[in-house]
Amino acid sequence: MPFQKYFRSAHQFLSQVRSLWLVLSSLIFLTLLTYLDYITGTEYGFTLLYLFSVLLLTWFINLGAGVIVSFLSILSWFGIRVLLLSGKSMGEVNFLILSGEAAFRLVFLLVCCYVLSLLQKDMAIRDEQTKELIELNKMKNFFIGMVAHDLRNPLSVIEMSAFTLRDDENRKNLSQDQLMLLESIYRKSVYMLKLIEEYLDVMKIEAGRLELNKSTYDYVKFIADIVALNTIIAHQKNISIAIHRETDIPMFSFDRNKISQVLSNLLINAINYSRPHSTVKITLKVDKEYIVTEIVDNGPGIQAQDINRLFEAFYRSKGTTEKGTGLGLTISKKIIEAHGGTIGFRNNSDAGSTFWFTLPETVLSELQISPALV
C-alpha cells in the first residue's frame, strides 16, 4: 500500500536524524503552536498537534523526552489560556476549571507516551527474537545441508548400483526374492535422493539463493520433451498424456531446469492421482502478456480441508496414499514466483483438478511461433 511505503520511508529517514535535531525541531514546533494558540484565541486548542512532537520524541529518543515535552506543551497551553482570559477580564479566569482541563490534557499526552513506549519495547523484543530465529534457522540449514550433501553421494552409488543390477543380464542370476529386495532397494534409494534434493532446494529458497539461468527457448518443444520423459510412468497406469495448444506460443525466456522441475512435479502428481485408462491433458495458451500452462487430471479433486494449505511446506493430505515429502508444490510455487508468474489450481466441474501456472512472455524482436502439435 502507498501509505505503508511512505510511512516506512519517513521512519527510516527520522531514524537517521540526530537526537539533538529532533529535540530542537520539536521545541520550534512547540513555539509555533503556542503562537498559533495565541492568535486563534480561546476557542481553539491544539493538543492533538502537540501530541505529534510528544510521540516523535518518545519513539525516536526515549520516554523521558516525551514526558518533558508533554509538560512543556500543556504548560504552554495553560499559560496562553490564562493570558488570553486575563486580557478580557481577570475575574473571568476560573483557575480551577482551567487547571482541571490542563490536567486532563496532560494525562492524555502522558498515557499516549507510555503506551507508545510499551509498544516500542515489545517491538524491540520481537525484533530481537526474530533475529535469533533467523540465526537458528541459518544454523539448522547449515547442518542439514552438510548432512544432506554427505548422504547424497553414497545414496547415488546405491541407486546406480541397484539400477545396474536390474538390467536383463544381471536379473538372470537372481532369485525372485533377491529381485524383490533389489527392486525395493532401488525404489527407496530413488525416493531418498528425491527427498534430499527437495530439502536442499527448500534451503536455497529460504536463504534467498534461488538463482535463475534464463534462456530463450521453444516452449512447446520443451513441454513435449518433458512429456516424453514421463511417458513411461504414465504407461504403467495406462494413462496417456495429451498436449493441446489453444493459441500460438512465442519463444520466450525462462529457466529450463527450474521449469522442468515444476512441470515434472505437476505432471507426476496428475499421473499419480488420475484414474487408470484416462488422459492427462496439458493446455498451453497466451493470456495478455503471460504464457499459461494448465495440467488437467482425472483424479478425485482437491478436498475442502486441503485447499488453503496445498502449497504449504511439508503439508500432506490425510486422505492421500501417494508417497511424497510435501515440498514439491512449495518449491514449484517459489520457482514460478521467482520468474514473475503465479501458480494455482481449481477443481474441475466434472472430475479431477487443474493445476496452472503463468510465465511472463519475453518475446523476441521477431515473433517465432512453435510448430503445431498433433
Summarize the structure.
This protein is α+β, with helices and mostly antiparallel strands and 374 residues long. The chain has a domain at 215-360: Heat Shock Protein 90 (2-Layer Sandwich). The protein contains 11 helices and 7 strands.
Structure write-up:
By secondary structure, the chain is of the alpha+beta class. The chain has a domain at 215-360: Heat Shock Protein 90 (2-Layer Sandwich), CATH 3.30.565.10. It is 61% helix and 11% strand. The chain has eleven helices and seven strands. It has helices spanning 2-15, 19-40, 47-60, 63-88, 95-165, 168-171, 176-206, 219-229, 231-235, 256-273, 328-338, and strands at residues 215-217, 240-245, 252-254, 279-287, 290-296, 343-347, 353-360. The strands form two sheets. Strands 2-4-5-7-6 form a five-stranded mixed beta sheet. A two-stranded antiparallel sheet has the order 1-3. A hairpin with a 2-residue loop joins strand 4 and strand 5. Helix 3 packs antiparallel against helix 4 (63-88). The protein is elongated and about 115 Å long. 19% of the residues are buried. Residues 363-374 have low confidence and may be disordered.
